[in-house]
Design a protein that fits this description.
The chain is mostly beta strands. It has 2 domains: about 5-180, no CATH class; about 205-260, no CATH class. About 5% of the residues lie in helices and about 50% in strands. Strands 4, 5, 7, 8, 10, 11, 13, 16, 17, 18 and 19 form an 11-stranded mixed β-sheet that branches. Strands 1, 2, 3, 6, 9, 12, 14 and 15 form an 8-stranded mixed β-sheet that branches. A hairpin with a 4-residue loop joins strand 17 (about 215-220) and strand 18 (about 225). The radius of gyration is 18 Å and the shape is globular. The protein starts with a strand and ends in a 16-residue tail after the last helix. Belongs to the UreD family.
Length: about 270
């Protein structure tokens, strides 16, 4: 993929692409695994039908002014597990311009995607605009986790705007935008974070939910399990730190019958 310096006054332009396809022998092949700049993609040992890809950060990114793009295409009948080795840290750059990070995902019919990266940390002075769009076929299944940590230990956060849009069979299933940090009205008030410094969600989409929708329930004062208007459920939480956040999300997942047996490709794991 292309990696280059943007025009003067801007940062790095970098992109990566993953393509997973059923191999015709009961497994999943990775015909495209390509990245440049901060994107170092590594093929891990497969687990049954599921191919596994891990993103290794090859350089500090995103910095202010950087424009990053990542795409994943999971073909019909394929199964992919995507992870990262470490947290992504949004840092200030030399220009003062915001960074952008654009993620585009497509999951075909009968395909399974588990998208489980480590958290995104918004460091002091940084500004990041992150957009994720997921397109699902009618029989696709998805486990998608995102976690945001606002500031490193002992520091205030930078400014972070993150939008997640999920469409199933061309129709909107989930669309949420969150903004935190300097200049965002009320972001640290009781109606949003209430003094917490970590926020996240775990979204699961499974056609089986159409017949057996999960029940809504609270997970204490700062987390909830909520079924969506479609075959999906979301676990949403705010927490004091990343460890507490991950615990809340996993507790929410393990406490709900997602209609998915552990011996299938989409068993939710950390």
């Amino acid at each position: 993929m292309t990696t280059a310096l943007a025009p003067a006054g801007h940062g790095l332009l970098a992109a990566a692409r993953v393509v997973a396809a059923a191999d015709g022998r009961g497994g999943t092949a990775l015909p495209v695994l390509d990245g440049g700049g901060p994107f170092a993609l590594r093929r891990l040992r497969s687990a049954g039908h599921e191919a596994r890809v891990c993103l290794v950060g090859a350089m500090s990114a995103p910095l202010g002014g950087d424009a990053l793009a990542l795409s994943a295409d999971v073909g019909d009948g394929a199964a992919l597990h995507f992870s990262t080795t470490a947290a992504t840290i949004a840092l200030p750059g030399r220009t003062g311009a915001p960074a952008t990070y654009d993620v585009r995902i497509r999951v075909g019919d009968g395909a399974v995607l588990r998208w489980l990266p480590e958290p995104l940390i918004s460091a002091r002075g940084g500004e990041l605009r992150m957009t994720t769009v997921v397109e699902l076929a009618p029989t696709a299944r998805l486990v998608f986790r995102e976690e945001q940590i606002l500031g490193r230990a002992g520091e205030p956060p930078g400014r972070l705007t993150a939008r997640l849009t999920v469409r199933r069979d061309g129709r909107s299933l989930y669309d949420q935008e969150l903004s935190y940090g300097p200049g965002v009205p009320g972001w640290d008030g009781g109606a949003v974070l209430g003094g917490h410094r970590a926020a996240g969600q775990l979204l699961v989409v499974d056609p089986a939910f159409a017949a057996r929708p999960p029940e809504a329930r609270a997970l204490g004062p700062t987390a909830v399990v909520a079924p969506l208007a479609g075959p999906a459920v979301v676990v949403s939480a705010v927490a004091r730190d990343g460890l507490e956040l991950r615990t809340l999300l996993e507790n929410g997942r393990s406490g709900v019958d997602f209609g998915i047996q552990h011996d299938t490709d989409i068993a939710v794991q950390q």
